[in-house]
Amino acid sequence: MTVVEVVQEARPEPTPEPVVEKLDTKEKEVPSFRPGQRAPIAGTYAVYREGEEIGVVRELAEGGRFPPPPRKGDVYRLTEAG
């Protein structure tokens, strides 16, 4: 009787494909606040005119009301929380 030794080659584990996260290229909408509204969180708010910061910065506590901006139509946006 002949003994045959069966050798099984070890197969390499399949390498997982790299995970590629798709980043959302659209800008997230930033909430704007009008005079008289209350600040949702304490922080530094800047005045924006037509989508661009015009440099007027105000510190507001949580629940504080936004004062009138320099020009009608300007809005406030949070620039730094806390």
In words, what does this structure look like?
- This protein is mostly beta strands.
- Helices cover 0% and strands 28% of the residues.
- It has a 3-stranded antiparallel sheet, with no helix packed on it.
- 5% of the residues are buried.
- The chain is built from no helices and 3 strands.
Topology record:
Elements: E1 43-49, E2 52-60, E3 75-81
Antiparallel strand pairs: 1-2, 1-3
Shape, principal axes of CA atoms: rod-shaped
State the end-to-end CA separation.
85 Å
Strand content: 25-35%
Low-confidence stretches: 16-23
Number of strands: 3
Q: Record the strand order, biggest sheet.
A: 2-1-3
Largest sheet features: 3 strands, antiparallel
Radius of gyration: 30 Å
Our count of helices gives: 0
Q: Helical content, roughly?
A: under 10%
Please state the structural category.
Answer: mainly beta
The average pLDDT is 78
SSE sequence, one letter per element: EEE
